Amino acid sequence: MQALGWRSNTKYLALQDDISSVAYWYQTLPFNKFPTLPTYEFLEII
User: Fold this and answer.
1) I need a surface site. Which of 4, 19, 21, 37 has the fewest CB within 10 A?
2) Residues with Cβ < 8 Å from 13, sequence gap 6 or more?
């Protein structure tokens, strides 16, 4: 997400607002177990 404002000369203004989002998933049906997540050594930092 990006907070954009509006300048008077029809250009966008990048704002510095703090924005957050959350999603919840409630599942009552049976499901397969999730695979094990890789350790941090195998994750790529970009």
Assistant:
1) 21
2) 4, 5, 6, 7
